[in-house]
Every structure is written in structure tokens, then in C-alpha cells.
């Protein structure tokens, strides 16, 4: 699958050292972009899964319900967001009926288990049976458990299990348990990051404790590895001054934040910090942002002003996305640019994204934007109010490990505070990182593979 950590050369080498021969099943977007080794890489039959999904209304309903039956503040918000997105086209009666039956069913005990059972037995697929037989597959590893955003991986794992092949799953993000709905299959063993995540999956998914292990996050092993370039050499490589402080803004999909940040950090930069500073902007690699006309305008404004734009979703003049996809797969062993920025910047400004956790792992002071300068015409789902009400963003340790700026003045004050002393909140950052990730020793991939070997 396209989870970056599973493709990195170091992980593939560890697989080989443990006696595994890895075979990769990639979605068409990735598979058709490169000339992969045909004995190691195969195409995930996403199109077959999509045809089935579009054909069966009941399957669509089962998956929609399965997303919301894990009842948390986050899924409450996502349900309201779904309603909001359909209001313009739906009839009043139809929308009201859906709200009532979803609101009722998502609170029925055991509903997630029933929905997953119905989906497994009513909509059986055999898209990869031939591959499993011909390649003599001994086990399967997928990111996620077949919940929201992992539907295809779930179908793939179920096909393996029907043929008696053990299917393991590894959680790939810290919000997956509370945000992505009920699982679509029961893994032979589930790899979670920490004791906190184990408690969440047992409580929210009624998941059996004897079928999970705490391994840590495989994708964050890279933060434990030494970097090839020191701070001076890295900043010079992207034409920034290593003698200046570096402020790093990593935004979300709300285009308005990028214009507001431009006003503060470019047009009025003299009030940000008493000395000159480097400024780096990294957009969220999501089509909602990168495909919008507003982003193309603001990106050029930033570049013209000498701001370094670290864009993981850059597309060249011919529309070629190979460089982006290669980075997304993590096919190269060298640390990516984000790794360097998180370790060598002096302060991060963020919108309550996963980047805040990564910054805590790298001991980078973080300020969350807790206000919206512009809200006209903006859907609730992209506002800071929405972000701050989500379950994983309300955790006490997460809020203690960073600052939440409720207005522009607080934002500037916190920047000054952190740039003057980057040791502020250092202990809280470590405590938060450990609570989410468990052991941060660079050995998560070793524990994951050991778990699989014991169960095969």
C-alpha cells in the first residue's frame, strides 16, 4: 500500500533481514507512474472495488454508517460536515430522514460489528485471489483496518483472509482510531502506537486486547536517524540565511489562512520579530488547496517576496506528478525536506494538524492558530473552530505542549516568546510525543515485524 514507511529502503532491508520477501500492491495512480519490478510490485484493483461501490446503494450506506458509529466529538463534527455538504442538493425530507436514522443507528450498541459483518458477507470480492496463489503469499500487511479512507485496503485484507492468509494492520496516523470510523475487518494482530492508542481502540471499537500489540509509529523512525546535512548547510541549500531564526508555517486546506499569514509575515514582517528572519511556507498537499485558483495566486506572491515555499504537491509545467508521487511513496532513503524543516526551524505555526505531533517529536516549539481572520463564505469544516473541537485536538497534553493563539496579538507574542527561548514547553513536548507514540527509539519497524513473525 502507499504508506510511505513501508516503501523506504531501510524498511525493505529490515524485511529482508527478517526473512520476508515484500510484494507491494499499489493503487493505479502510483503503479502506473513508475516502471516497478514486475516481480515485486502489482496493481491494486481499485477500479473493481469502485465499480462495486458505485453499483450498490446499500454498500454505500453501510460504509457511511460505519464511519459514524464510533461516537466521538470528531465523528459528530464529521457527520455535521457531511450534512452541510449535501444541503444544497438534497430535499428537506430526504435530508431530515438521513439525519434521524444515522443519529439513531450510530448510538446502537454493536452496530459497527453488524455493519462490518453485512459488508463482508454481502459484498465479497476476489480481485486478487490469483495473485495470492501465484505469488504464494504467506501474510498481508495493510495500513488501517478497512475503515474510512482505507476501504480498498480492507477489501484486499478480506480477500486474503478468505483464502486463509493472515492479515495484519498497522495504524498510520494518531487520529485514525477516533476519526476514521469502525473497522472493516478483524486483523490477525493490530499494531498500535502507544498504550493510549491501545486504550482507545479497546474502548471505542470494542477491540480484543489479545489481538493488538504496541509497536510505535513506523513512519516516525526516520526522526530518530541522523541527518546528512547540518543546519547551516541545509538552510543554505534552499537559499536561506543560517544566521537568522527560521519561522515555519504549515497550513491546512483553508486558503484564507495563507493570505492572512502573507499579510502578517510579508507585508508587516517588521512587527513579527525584532530581527530579520527566514520564513518558510508549506501547503497541505490536498487537492482542496493545491487545485484552487487562490493557491496559485498566493504561491506566486510568496515566491516573489523571497519566502521559501516547500510544496510537496508541486507539479511541473507539463503536469508531471512523478516527483511528488515518488516523494509520497518514500522510495528514496535520504531524509525528505520536511524532516529537515522540523528539526532545523525555530518555531512552527500550524492549524492543529499531524504536523504538531511531528514537531513535538522533533522538539520544535509550536503555535496553533486558534482564530479565523476571515470566515465569510467558508464552510465550517475548514475553520479553526472545527479543528479545535475534534477529539484528538482537545487532549490535555497536546494543548500543554504548544501555544494556541486566539488572535493576532497572541500569535506575535508567542512567536517572540519561543524565539527568545526555545526551551519553553520542552518537557511538555516530550511528554505529549511519548503519550501518542510510545517509545521513540527508532525501533518501531523492528517491533512490527517481530509481531508478524510471532503470529504467522
Identify the notable features of this structure and list them briefly:
single chain; 456 residues; alpha/beta; Rossmann fold; 2 domains; 6-stranded parallel sheet; 4-stranded parallel sheet; 12 strands; 10% strand; globular
CATH architecture of the largest domain: 3-Layer(aba) Sandwich
* Chain-averaged pLDDT: 90
Strand content: 5-15%
Domain count: 2
Poorly predicted runs are: 315-320
The CATH class assignment of the largest domain is: Alpha Beta
Largest sheet, if any?
A: 6 strands, parallel
Helix content: 40-55%
CATH domain fold name of the largest domain: Rossmann fold
Largest sheet, order of strands side by side? Answer: 9-8-7-10-11-12
Q: Let me know the number of strands.
A: 12
In whole angstroms, how far apart are the ends?
20 Å
Q: CATH superfamily of the largest domain, called what?
A: Glycogen Phosphorylase B
The best one-word shape is: globular
Outline:
By secondary structure, the chain is α/β, with parallel strands linked by helices. It is about 45% helix and about 10% strand. The chain contains 23 helices and 12 strands.
What can you see in these coordinates?
The chain has 456 residues and is α/β, with parallel strands linked by helices. The protein has 2 domains: 166 residues, Rossmann fold; 201 residues, 3-Layer(aba) Sandwich (Rossmann fold). Helix content is 47%, strand content 10%. The protein is built from 23 helices and 12 strands. The strands form 3 sheets. The protein has a 6-stranded parallel beta sheet with strand order 9-8-7-10-11-12, sandwiched between helices. Helix 4 runs antiparallel to helix 7. The radius of gyration is 23 Å and the shape is globular.
Amino acid at each position: 500500500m502507499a504508506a510511505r514507511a513501508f516503501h523506504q529502503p531501510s524498511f525493505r532491508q529490515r524485511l529482508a533481514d527478517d526473512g520476508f520477501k515484500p510484494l507491494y500492491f499499489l493503487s493505479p495512480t502510483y503503479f502506473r507512474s513508475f516502471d516497478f519490478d514486475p516481480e515485486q510490485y502489482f496493481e491494486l484493483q481499485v477500479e473493481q472495488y469502485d465499480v462495486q461501490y458505485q453499483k450498490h446503494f446499500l454498500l454505500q450506506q453501510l460504509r457511511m454508517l460505519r464511519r459514524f458509529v464510533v461516537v466521538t466529538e470528531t465523528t459528530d463534527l464529521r457527520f455535521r460536515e457531511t450534512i452541510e455538504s449535501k444541503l444544497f442538493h438534497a430535499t428537506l425530507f430526504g435530508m431530515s430522514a438521513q439525519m434521524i436514522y444515522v443519529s439513531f443507528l450510530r448510538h446502537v450498541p454493536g452496530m459497527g460489528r453488524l455493519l462490518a459483518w453485512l459488508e463482508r458477507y454481502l459484498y465479497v470480492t476476489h480481485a486478487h485471489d490469483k495473485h495470492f496463489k501465484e505469488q504464494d503469499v504467506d501474510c498481508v500487511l495493510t495500513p488501517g483496518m478497512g475503515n474510512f479512507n482505507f476501504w480498498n485496503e480492507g477489501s484486499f485484507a478480506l480477500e486474503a483472509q478468505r483464502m486463509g492468509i493472515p492479515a495484519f494492520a498497522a495504524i498510520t496516523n494518531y487520529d485514525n482510531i477516533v476519526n476514521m470510523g469502525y473497522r472493516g475487518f478483524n486483523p490477525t494482530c493490530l499494531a498500535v502506537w502507544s498504550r493510549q492508542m491501545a486504550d482507545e481502540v479497546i474502548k471505542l471499537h470494542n477491540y480484543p486486547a489479545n489481538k493488538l500489540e504496541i509497536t510505535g509509529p513506523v513512519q516516525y523512525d526516520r526522526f530518530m536517524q541522523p541527518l546528512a546535512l547540518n543546519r547551516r548547510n541545509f538552510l543554505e541549500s534552499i537559499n536561506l540565511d543560517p544566521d537568522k531564526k527560521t519561522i515555519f508555517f504549515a497550513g491546512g486546506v483553508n486558503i484564507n489562512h495563507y493570505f492572512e499569514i502573507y499579510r502578517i509575515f510579508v507585508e508587516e514582517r517588521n512587527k513579527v520579530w525584532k530581527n530579520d528572519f527566514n520564513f518558510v511556507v508549506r501547503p497541505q498537499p490536498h487537492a482542496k488547496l493545491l487545485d484552487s485558483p487562490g493557491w496559485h495566486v498566493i504561491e506566486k506572491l510568496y515566491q516573489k517576496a523571497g519566502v521559501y515555499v516547500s510544496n510537496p504537491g508541486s507539479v511541473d509545467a507539463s503536469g508531471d506528478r512523478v516527483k511528488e508521487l515518488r516523494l509520497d511513496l518514500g522510495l528514496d532513503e535520504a531524509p525528505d525536506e520536511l524532516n529537515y524543516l522540523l528539526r532545523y526551524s525555530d518555531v512552527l505555526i500550524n492549524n492543529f494538524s499531524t504536523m504538531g505531533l511531528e514537531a513535538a517529536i522533533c522538539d520544535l516549539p509550536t503555535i496553533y492558530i486558534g482564530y479565523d481572520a476571515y470566515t465569510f463564505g467558508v464552510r465550517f469544516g475548514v475553520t479553526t473552530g472545527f479543528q479545535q473541537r475534534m477529539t484528538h485536538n482537545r487532549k490535555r497534553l497536546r494543548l500543554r505542549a504548544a501555544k494556541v493563539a486566539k488572535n493576532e496579538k497572541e500569535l506575535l507574542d508567542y512567536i517572540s516568546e519561543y524565539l527568545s527561548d526555545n526551551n519553553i514547553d520542552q518537557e511538555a513536548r516530550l511528554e505529549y510525543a511519548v503519550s501518542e507514540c510510545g517509545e521513540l527509539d527508532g525501533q518501531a519497524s523492528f517491533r512490527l515485524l517481530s509481531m508478524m513473525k510471532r503470529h504467522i
